[in-house]
Every structure is written in C-alpha cells, then in structure tokens.
Amino acid sequence: TDFYVDAGIATTETRNTNHTGKTTWEYGEPVSPFSGYYLSCRTQYVILASDLQKTGFIAGNFNSIGLFVLSNYTSDYYENFTIKMAQTSATDLSGGFLSPSFTTVWGATDYYVNSGDNTFTFSSGFTWDGTSNIVVQMCFDNTSSYYPWEAYVRSINMPYQASYQSFSDYDDQC
Q: What is the pLDDT along the chain (174 residues), one digit of tens a residue?
C-alpha cells in the first residue's frame, strides 16, 4: 500500500525548537520535514486509523510514503534522512514527541528533494494492524555543517495537533 502524507493528515503550525525554546512558528509556514534552516530536524506526524479507513485503507503492509513538495528552495541534500513508523494509541501530538518502538522503513541516506512528488519506497515494509493510529517520524542530521534551506510540503489543517517538530544546530535530532 502506498500512502501520501498530504492525503489527509497534515499539520498545525506548532513547532518546538531546542535552540530557542519557542513553541509557535511565527511565520505561518506549515511543518515540513525539510526544515533546513537548522543542521538537524525531527518531525512526527500522527495519522488516525479513522482517516486511513475513510480513504479505503485496510490492515496490511505499507510499501512507501510520499510527500508533495510545493516550494523547493534548495538544491542541496539532507544528510542521513530517515523515516520511521510505529503504531500508537495516541490521537495527537499535543504532548510532544511520541516514543513508541519504531521501525526504520527508509534511510538513513542523503536525500535530494524534488518539487512535486517525493516517494520513499521502503527498504522494509511496515505492517499496519488496521485499527491503531500511526506515527511517522522523519529526520535528518547534516553532519557536514551546511544548511540546505527549506522545502515546503502540501498540508491541510486538522482539528487536532497532527504534527510536532524539533530542530537544532547543536544536537542530532535523529
């Protein structure tokens, strides 16, 4: 099963940053796993089972996940880009990051962002039980000390906090 993150989960505009301690991103951009103003970034998304079920998903394997990049302001790559997934009973990220037992499904590898569709075919599948919510974690750590700038992904507002993000110039967020 292939799933596009923009197909029904998305973001509030809440971010957390270890660097400044702010919890609201002033500029209004949606949360993007390609936040390249810092050397390292971790983003989590919660996908409710009810949202998956409404779009026709049934229990089984996920083979890929996609992001639709609306605006790409970088030609550089994101080092050690990693995607992990887990099942969870959590219904939002209002309490911050979740810490379930994650399965690494993609990476860590250097990744160049494309405008438009960005599909990540999993190196190992992720099996969904059909009833649990899913948490997707994406992160990168630019160890070579360069900033790849931003790439904004398609998102919609949800009635719950569907995303949470942390970034830092000093600590590995992966």
A: 444 444 333 333 333 333 332 233 444 456 788 877 778 889 999 999 999 999 889 999 999 999 888 877 777 888 999 999 999 999 999 899 999 999 999 999 999 999 999 999 999 889 999 999 999 999 999 877 666 667 778 777 778 888 888 888 888 888
Contact 172, 128 (CB under 8 A): no
List phi, psi (to 5°) of 21.
80, 5
Cβ-Cβ contacts under 8 Å for 8 (sequence gap 6 or more): 47, 51, 54, 55, 156
Q: 53 by DSSP, 3-state: which? A: helix
The model's pTM is 0.83
Query: How many angstroms separate the CA atoms of 60 and 129, rounded?
Result: 7
